[in-house]
Amino acid sequence: MMLTKLGAMNGQDSGITKRQLGVFMALVGSIGFVAVLAIDIVDVGRQGGIGPAQFTALGLLAAGAVIGLTLIPLGDAPA
Amino acid sequence: MTMPRSRIYTLLMAAATAALLFSFLIYLLYTANLLSFPYDYDQGEGFELHDTVLYSRFQLPYRDTESYPFYGSIYPPLFHVMAAPFVWLFGPAYWYGRLLGFLASLVSAGAIYYAVFRQGRGNRWIALLSALAFLSSNFVYHIGPLYRQHTMMVTFETLAVVMLAGAFPRRDKRGTAAGLLLLICAGYTKQLAAFSALAAFTWMFLRQPARALRCLLVFALAGAAIFLWLNIASDGQWWLQTIVANVNDTIPEQAVGLFILWFKLHGLLLIPAAALLVYELYLDRLSIYSVWFVFSTVLGAIAASKWGAGDSYFVTSIAAACILSGIFFSRALAKDWRLPRRFPKAILTKVSRAALIVIPLLYIGYARATLKLPTAGAFEPVAAALGVEGNVRDDFYDSASFLVGGYARIGYLLTAEDRAAGDEIVRLIRATEGPALSEEAGFALAAQRDVVTNPAQLRNLHLAGRFDGGRLVGMIERGEFGIVVLRAQFYPPPVLAAIARSYEQTQSIHMNGFDYIILHPRALDDN
Predict the structure, then answer these.
(1) Residue A24: inside a domain, yes or no?
(2) Which residue of B175, B381, B437, B522 pairs with B484 in a disulfide if CB–CB is 3.0 to 4.6 A?
(3) Considering its fold, how many domains does chain A have in total?
(4) Residue A9 lies in a domain
(5) Which DSSP category does A13 fall into?
(6) Is A7 domain-assigned?
(7) Alpha-carbon distance B271 to B365, whole Å?
(8) Best mutation target, B281, B294, B295, B338, to test chain A (most A CBs within 10 A)
(9) So what's the ipTM on this one?
(10) pLDDT tens, B44-53?
(11) Are B481 and B435 within 8 A, CB to CB?
């Protein structure tokens, strides 16, 4: 039932648009970026600041957010 | 659609084909050389053979490592199950597992050919070069003809992605089901296939979200049913050995080094692949190959930081890159782009003309970038003509060199001396009483002794706090093993310490470029 509704919501299951994909990537990228930065703020016992793994994650999330933002103006074109 | 042709294009394409066929010839030689070698070449092959032997006896290799023979396996079953019938016919041997790996790499190359041919407007020549480019990769060359399950996983992944690319958009239920089944096969060959499954479902969700979710539900149920069955049948050891023990310490420098090497060797195809990805992202629809390329590269690179990971973790992304670059080249030649109306068509014509020269040059450059060959014997004049000399060994050149951590230090050809060294280790094992504690299973199998322990797995379990090792250490301290054979010394520190206390080195045997340390029990009054 839920899956049928999902199909109906999305124009007979015609696919995700570039705008939807862009919004998703921008949100995940920016929220993830803040969350990874917050690891150091919340986990005050940690030593050594931002490590290589965190640095990589920050880079990937920032890139994802930027790419997402550039996709939003492309509107309803299928992703 | 007519194919663009010119004499220079034909000549350059013929040169590119010859260069990549030469690379394939080296791959064939390497495979033939390995098939005739009866011992471990890459560390861990023997344990995969032992898994196969256990499956041939209808036994699972997911076992309690606290009791004799202290053996457990980290790998899912499918590759070893596929090889099990060979044990019935030929007994334990390396050649059939290596042959399966090699044949699997050819099947992957065939799938790449088909994908490029289908999506590349029927350009057979580019499709052929894409397939040969995959086989020319130093990373594929390394792992292809080994008794390892990795190549088979990549083959299942590639077949699954190519199958889904055609079937899912057409709503072809059988084709989609076959693609999903191949993904399950990939996952039960090696856990790393989870990245390809993630990529496939992401793409399916982008295309038809509701259908993708229905497929995901069926896929998850089928995968979980197998998982549960294995866990129940192994009394929970499946979970412990393949999941809990699979969380290792990370070495970020290793991932960075491998990533840079991956780009240096394959950059001439990675850039066109990335160009097609950008084109699809902004001007067309994302293909499954683009999504697969992104997921397998990013997640593969992250996973490559794990202890025990290596260059093989990039093989899936290389398969994706070969497909994407092949499609990009085919479309560039055919001027087959969906571009905004205001885009000047004259530019497309110029690009197509330039592509006639640039594309074969890129493949020639790629063949040079991935060059590896023996530099002695019959290949000496070839090496001299190419201006290369042995770098990883006196008699072997590998463009990747052996400088990056995690890059498998293999690829050279084995000699009669290597075989004799292996025979000598087996003779030493046979000359002793009691079980042998060998870091490589092949010697124990050849000597018809029990395969005792899987060192890397014990190390993994030790790090996860799930290996006590009291009984094993006790057997070592009582000198119950007639002989100990060490190579990489992957055992957990308490086991290595017990060996150092109770055994003494009697010999060192050089085989495959590594020193195998032979130890015998110390005299009792030495302890």
Answers:
(1) yes
(2) B437
(3) 1
(4) no
(5) T
(6) no
(7) 13
(8) B281
(9) 0.85
(10) 999 999 999 9
(11) yes
